[in-house]
Amino acid sequence: MSNREKALSYAQENKEKFLDELKEVLRIPSVSTDSARKDDMLRVAEWLVEKLEVLGMENVEIFPTAKHPVVYADWLHAKDAPTVLIYGHYDVQPEDPLDLWETPPFEPTQRGDSLHARGASDMKGQVVATLKAVEAIVKNGELPCNIKFMIEGEEEIGSPNLLDFMEMHKELLAADFCLNPDAGMLGKELPSITYALRGLAYFEIHVTGPSHDLHSGLFGGAVRNPANTLMTLIAGMKDENGHITLPGFYDKVRAIDAEERAELAKLPVNEEFLLKQTGSPSLWGEKGYTPVEQIGARPTLDVNGMLSGFTGEGAKTVLPAKAMAKISMRLVPDQTPDEVYEQLVQYMEENAPDGVKWDIKVEHGGNPSISELGGVGVKAMSDAMSTVWGTPPLFKREGGSIPVVGDMQKALGIESVLTGFGLPDDRIHSPNEKQDLPTWYRGIDALIHFFYNLA
Ligand SMILES: [Zn+2]
User: Residue 371 pLDDT > 90, yes or no?
Assistant: First the structure.
């Protein structure tokens, strides 16, 4: 029997023990946003340290940050094998509204195939799955690759200290790539790997005209109305094909080739699904691309809010002195928020008419990210999932952003393999969060294969 097979049968034999340990950590209410639970945060960090030490991990340490600590550990004795940095977070979302929970959020309860508790899926379940996969391996031989754990306690509050932490510990955290199991899969029989995330650029555009609101009868017709002007400018940012017209906007956008398009077409995100999810009368998007491509692989420009003039009950004949719109753009590789800002400024310079002044305020931004599909990490995980599920994983692009992925690329220069064993109906962040246990056990098996595949 090979060590891989021994590890897999160890996992099989220890299912109950693994589950008990997951329940143990789920009982600690590590809600990062709640300052009254600072001690609970530390208790989970210490729980992790104890587990990591039992596994023979080295340099196990709790690093304090300005808020909640980061737990680190490594094992680096596999010669000529890659090093994987395993990312996780041990904090959870608040449990309220408490009265909507069928069983208490911090008393893990099994109902059918599901284990219900806050954090069961997001993401203590995923963190414990990686720990148990490592346990199965080290109880039956040596780790076939080098691993580092970095488990933070601030993900649910936006990871405010993680970028600094990574920049301060570049050498300690150096790795070939990151495994981030916080992204879940598409369905019980649909293992998936997310290989690209969109970035974000967020602006406020202010247009000002007269020095004060004017009577639209006395002055209307002789001065520019900032509200009309701002709307005209925004309307001009997209053409009738849904193409964004900012100068140079698509210059850095990576094209998707036929192979990738065929891969994306396999995803269960079709017109019917999107109409149901959105409640829109019909879909509309950039011509020449399917909805799944529009969401994952193409950039966007959207008004998120507008403010101008009189919006109260009834009529007030006013010509507003100013108008404001909040505009966000979802970016794709290799766009950057800074370049998009320059393009927006250039558009305004070329198109804003006389008679108004304008100003752009930068709210925030984040870079898009993409992993090489042929990379060693993606390949190892993809093969592992094929072995366990009997079907290759779906490769998807995420329309949203996971800041830690971009931060890691920035601080450590490494890409992330995003996956996980949570399901879309796990109700993460909501009452009655659950983890599907058969999927969790398959996840542990997949992780065992993944580590061996890296050797
Ligand atoms: Zn999470």
Answer: no
178 CA → ligand 1 middle, Å:
15
| Rounded Cα gap, residues 453 and 167, in angstroms | 30
**CB burial of residue 427 (10 Å; 0-12, 13-18, 19+):** middle
What architecture is the 199-253+299-366 domain classified under in CATH? 2-Layer Sandwich (3.30)
- Per-residue pLDDT at 356 exceeds 90: yes
Cis peptide before 247 (omega within 30 of 0): no
pTM for this prediction = 0.86
Domain boundaries, the chain: 3-197+368-454, 199-253+299-366
Mean pLDDT of 177-199: 94
Determine the Cα–Cα distance for residues 49 and 71; give it in Å rounded to an integer. 7
Instruction: Select from 3.40.630.10, 3.20.20.10, 3.30.230.10, 3.40.50.410 the CATH code of 3-197+368-454.
Output: 3.40.630.10
DSSP 393: P
Determine the distance separating the centroid of ligand 1 and the alpha carbon of 383, expressed in angstroms. 24
**Got the DSSP string for 169-183?**
THHHH--SEEEE--S
| The pLDDT of residue 373 is above 90 | no
Measured CA angle at 250 (ends 245, 254), to 5 deg? 155
50-81 core/surface letters (b: 16 or more CB in 10 A; e: else): ebbeebbbeebeebebebbbbbbbbbeebeeb
**Ligand 1 center from residue 119 Cα (angstroms):** 8
pLDDT at 257 over 90: yes
Expressed in angstroms and rounded, the spacing between residue 154 Cα and the centre of ligand 1 is: 10
SS3 343: helix
Ligand 1 centre to CA of 69 (Å) is 16
